[in-house]
Design a protein that fits this description.
This protein is of the alpha/beta class. It folds into two domains: 188 residues, Response regulator (Rossmann fold); 161 residues, Response regulator (Rossmann fold). 41% of the residues lie in helices and 24% in strands. The strands form two sheets. Strands 7, 8, 9, 10, 11, 12, 13, 14 and 15 form a nine-stranded mixed sheet that branches. It has a six-stranded mixed sheet with strand order 2-3-1-4-5-6, with helices on both faces. Strand 4, helix 5 and strand 5 form a beta-alpha-beta unit. The radius of gyration is 21 Å and the shape is globular. It binds P-hydroxybenzoic acid (PHB). P-hydroxybenzoic acid (PHB) binds next to loops.
């Protein structure tokens, strides 16, 4: 039997016992970082890896008397791989923390392992609301998709947009986007003429864009995960929709800073709501973007912030516990933590372990010859609206 098969066969209880037995006694705190370095979500892995490396370069690789060792594993953008790699990292490498998770199915796959092994899982990317409710050991430093969608819905209503066609990727965060936007928009009198879902794998938007255009909406609301905005924008332009007077709105994933510089002028004027733009105007962000770009050779996108702040959360939690690295101590320390990120002020909600952050409205503009999401309005300390509504 191959080693990984044996591992997969281990019961969850055995994993828990192993992890518990090894916590605390070590001088090295190990962080198992599982992201996609290859496959469809490779841009997210590339961004998070660069951000984690930058954080350690700037802050050193030791905190509270412990060395922090990051063990990077490539999920290949396959959630089953994430689960297997998390099992191996917990059982063989005896990591104290797992982190990363480029898409929702990957984060959901590790939730039961985090619970059984009492190992904190720092979600640095995936954005479906439900994720943090799947384990008391999950904490999120990225975002929730509805956080941005309700804000752009309000903006649309206020700016005379009455009829919208929604286009979303056909999986959990797409459903979150469609639902949270539609409820808020129609609740304020807007009309959703059509709700279109596009496959996540190798999407061809062209036929869906034609259907959307035929409905003659004021705007198309689009959610695609980071990494797919370039394909979408290309097909949107090829169909001539940029010239048809149909506005493009959505959460900011579509105008992701990783791809935006190469999207072409058709992207200009796209209005999105999101928590991070490389153009965010603060001294902290200017320093961050400069250091990141210099070290990585590309612009940070919103996923980089999940990685950078995820590391900050781990370091600060270790300071607070005096280097104690068992799951319960770390999670307790992480709850309620607040700091100034390059994206603006953020905090970990002590009740939900989810992120509370500013959401900005931005418009794509050309600045010094390059496309940016230029922020023009701020909504402060936005909580995940889905969890807020459940209370
Ligand atoms: C997700 O799968 O949760 C996800 C991935 C990329 C995004 C947003 C959500 O940009």
């Amino acid at each position: 039997m191959k080693a990984y098969k044996w591992m997969a066969a281990l019961s969850a209880a055995a994993i828990g016992a192993l992890a518990a037995g090894h916590a605390g006694a070590q001088e090295t705190v190990k962080v198992g970082l599982i992201v996609s370095m290859t496959g469809q979500q490779a841009s997210t892995g590339k961004q998070i890896k660069a951000a984690v490396e930058l954080y350690q370069k700037q802050n050193g690789d030791a905190v509270a008397g412990k060395k922090v060792q990051v063990i990077l594993r490539d999920s290949g953008s396959v959630p089953d791989n994430t689960k297997r790699l998390a099992q191996e990292l917990i059982v063989n490498d005896k990591v104290n923390i797992i982190a990363g998770f480029e898409i929702t199915p990957a984060a959901l796959a590790v939730a039961p392992l985090a619970t059984e092994a009492k190992v904190p899982a720092v979600v640095m990317a995936a954005g479906t609301s439900i994720i943090t409710e799947r384990s008391p050991y999950i904490v999120r430093t990225s975002f929730t998709v509805p956080q941005s969608c309700v804000i752009i819905a309000d903006w649309a209503v206020k700016n005379g947009i009455k009829k919208v066609v929604t286009i979303v990727s056909d999986y959990a965060p797409g459903f979150d986007a469609e639902k949270s936007f539609t409820e808020r928009f129609t609740g304020a009198g807007g009309q959703v003429a059509q709700a279109i879902r596009v496959p996540l794998a190798n999407p061809d938007f062209a036929p869906f864009l034609q259907r959307a255009a035929d409905a003659k909406p004021d705007a198309i609301f689009i959610f695609v995960p980071s990494g797919q905005g370039g394909t979408f924008m290309k097909q949107y332009t090829e169909r001539g929709l940029d010239k048809a007077g149909i506005k493009l709105i959505g959460p900011g994933d579509v105008t992701d800073d990783d791809l935006l510089p190469n999207m072409g002028d058709a992207a200009i004027g796209t209005v999105t709501a999101h928590f991070y733009s490389a153009d965010h105007n603060s001294p902290k962000n200017k320093t961050f973007v400069e250091a990141f770009t210099k070290a990585a050779g590309f612009r940070p996108n919103f996923m980089a912030l999940g990685g950078y702040d995820g590391m900050h959360l781990i370091y600060e939690a270790l300071k607070k516990t005096g280097g104690k690295a068992d799951g319960d101590s770390l999670i307790t320390a992480m709850k309620g933590m607040k700091w100034e990120s390059p994206r603006g002020p953020i905090q970990i909600d002590p009740e939900t372990r989810d992120i509370i952050q500013n959401v900005y409205i931005r418009k794509v503009e050309k600045k010094a010859g390059s496309l940016y999401n230029v922020e023009f309005a701020t909504f402060e300390a936005v909580k995940d609206p889905v969890k807020a509504a459940k209370k």
